[in-house]
Amino acid sequence: MKVVTESFSLEFLKPQDAQSLSRLMISNGKRFQQYLPKTLSENLSEADSKNYIQRKTKQIKDKTEFTFAIKDIDSGDVAGLIILKNIDSQLKQGEFSYCLGQKYSGKGWMTRSIKVVKAYAFNELELKSLQIIIHKTNLPSIQVAEKNDFIWIKTLENEFVTGAVALNMELYEIQHER
User: Fold this and answer.
1) Is 70 in contact with 100 (CB distance < 8 Å)?
2) Residue 90 half-sphere exposure, CB side, CA atoms within 13 Å?
3) Could you tell me which residues come within 8 angstroms of residue 82 by beta carbon, excluding any fewer than 6 positions away?
4) Which of 19, 42, 107, 123 is the most buried (most CB within 10 A)?
C-alpha cells in the first residue's frame, strides 16, 4: 500500500529506509522514550533499523502486524511511524501505536495518515474495531484519535510500565460500521 499527498507519503517500511528511520529515532529520542521505548531501542543504529525493518516486513507477510512509514515528500525521510499491532483475528480487533518527529508535528500528517490506515484496517483486513491507548497528558495523540472518530472508553489502571513506574492509560476505540 502506498498513498501520496502533496507533502507526505504513507507506505510500508523498506530496507532503504533504515538510515532515515534510525536518524528519526535518535533525533527524537527524548520525545519517543516515554511511550515508545521498545521501538526506540530497536532503532538506535542503521544496522538495528535494518533488522527492525526485516522483522516488520515478515510481520506484514504473516499479517500479524503492519508498520507504515510516513515520509516527507521533499526529502524522502521517514517522518513517523504507524503500527497496527495486537491484531486479534477472533475479535477482529487491532491497536494503533504511532509517532511523529517533532519537526513534522502540527501539520495534520498523523491525523490524515491514521484515517488512511484505519480505512485499510477496516476494508482490507476486515477488522471490526480499532483501539488507541494514550496517556492523558499526550494531548496531540488524543486530538489525532478524536479527529478520527475514536471515542474514549475508559481508563486502564497501571496499563503501561515505563522504568519502575506503572501509568494509567486512556483507551479510545472505534467500531467499523458496515
Assistant:
1) yes
2) 0
3) 10, 67, 68, 70, 96, 97, 98, 110, 113, 114, 117
4) 42
Q: Which residue has the cell 536518524?
A: 23
Residue type, 178: R
pLDDT tens track for 110-131: 999 999 999 999 999 999 999 9
Query: Quick one: CA dihedral 114, 116, 118, 120, positive or negative?
Result: negative
Separation of alpha carbons 13 and 108, rounded Å: 21
Residue 163 has pLDDT above 70, yes or no: no
Rg of the chain, C-alpha, whole Å: 15
Q: Are 10 and 68 in contact (CB under 8 A)?
A: yes
133 contact partners, CB below 8 Å, separation of at least 6: 95, 156, 159, 160, 169, 170, 171, 172
In single-letter form, the type of residue at position 136 comes to K
As a whole number of angstroms, the distance between CA 130 and CA 15 comes to 28
